[in-house]
Amino acid sequence: MPRSSEDSLRFRLRATAFFALFNLILAWLLSLRYLPMIDMPPEALGIVWLVCAWLGAFGTLAVAIWLLPALLSLFLKRRLLIWPCAVLGTLGLGALWMDTQLFASTGDHLVDLSGDDKPTLSTIQWAITGGGMVLIALVELWLSWRIMARARRIPFPVWSLVLLMPVLLMASVGIDIATDTDQTAALHSQDADRQALMGEPATPVPEAREAATQRDQNGGPAIDDSVDPTERDTTALPDDDTEARP
């Protein structure tokens, strides 16, 4: 059993914060899977923004999630924090793992599963995803037990790093404002350029729909429903007077 000095509120807060920071490192490593699928900024300032946004966004999210075990540490002893921390870490890293799997396979994110057009994975991909979830759960349980039940002291600048994460996020926002450029949109510029070149898909106008309905009823030949008949080019058609001449 840990000594009373090792089960103080101060130690429990440091232990839960260290657990969150360790998971943050794992989240940073997992998020590296996004990098090959985005456009790297060509300018040095854009790369600085990407690093600050990448570190700061995940870091601030980890700090926000840490508030829950920090609140529990006000009431629970160290050993009672093992399972809550393990479950919370598994949910966080597991969601990131599933999102990277979807993004690498289909280009969609986990939130797209709630839409009508749901992304699909193959059986092998789902098996790999499930195996990764089991591995994450085991790692989180071991890590939580190792920190909450076995650690005697934590010689690590926990609070300095906790405060650094929001600073990095604010730095990325400051760069975004100073350059007057939407850096996030620039990461996906290839998709935007492709959409601009292809244009929007043609939408049949009411006149074309009516003509298509009459064609179907009369068994007429197929026509292009996407062309507005009121704007059809008739300059190449012969005049009636020309056809009447011998």
List the helices and strands and how they pair.
Layout: H1 9-31, H2 44-72, H3 82-106, H4 123-150, H5 158-179, H6 183-186, H7 189-198, H8 206-218, H9 240-244
Q: What keyword list fits this structure?
A:
246 residues
Explain what this protein looks like in three dimensions:
The protein has one domain (4-197). It contains nine helices and no strands. It has helices at 9-31, 44-72, 82-106, 123-150, 158-179, 183-186, 189-198, 206-218, 240-244. Helix 1 (9-31) packs antiparallel against helix 4 and helix 2 packs across helix 5. Mean pLDDT is 77; it is low at 189-202. The chain crosses the membrane at residues 12-35, 47-68, 80-104, 124-144, 156-175. Keywords: Membrane, Transmembrane, Transmembrane helix.
User: Would you identify the regions where 5 or more consecutive residues have pLDDT less than 50?
Assistant: 189-202
Question: Biggest sheet, open or closed, and with what strands and sense?
Answer: none
Shape: extended
Q: What percentage of residues falls in helices of 4 or more residues?
A: 55-70%
| Integer-rounded radius of gyration | 29 Å
Order of helices and strands: HHHHHHHHH
Tally the helices: 9
The chain-level mean pLDDT equals 77
Range of strand content: under 5%
The number of domains is 1
Compute the number of strand runs. Answer: 0
Helix/sheet category: mainly alpha
What is the CA–CA distance across the termini?
A: 112 Å
